[in-house]
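To whoever is on call:

I kicked off a structure prediction for a single chain this morning and the downstream step that reads the tokens threw a length-mismatch warning. I double-checked the sequence; it's 149 residues and nothing unusual in it as far as I can see. Pasting both halves so you can look.
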Amino acid sequence: MLRNLAVGLPVMLVCLLLQAVFVAICLRYYVRFKHARQGSVSLGQEIMLLSVVMVMTLFGNFVQMAIWAILFMLLGEFADFTTALYHSGVNFATLGYGDIVMSPTWRLLGPLEAANGILMLGVSSSVMTAAVLDVTKFNVASLGEDADP
């Protein structure tokens, strides 16, 4: 168990830092785009802006799954990357299919990755929610401005 923690916790830390990088990039892009347009954003631009935020956060999560998959391969749990990535995705998303399991030696890495995944998917969801709420506030405010005489 301690060996699983010694191997898994540093990977979790790397994933946490990676998620922070992706969140910072998304927020910077979002703020710079909104500031450059000074609030006047078309529907198409809003869709593109929200899509970029969603794709970036999703990409960040995928990279983290790939990191875990590489770890599983380095530990000799899987012979090919596709199977390792599939298993990693199941763990990361907390699906828990159980169709592919790791050896008893490294089995506890699955719950560690699941804990990592649920946190990171939550962070991704909050970033996307914040972007959607900002777009919603802007549109509600612009409706109020249109109603003023």
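Update from on-call: the warning came from a stale cache, not from the record. Cleared it. Sanity check on the structure: Residues 109-147 form the longest helix (39 residues).
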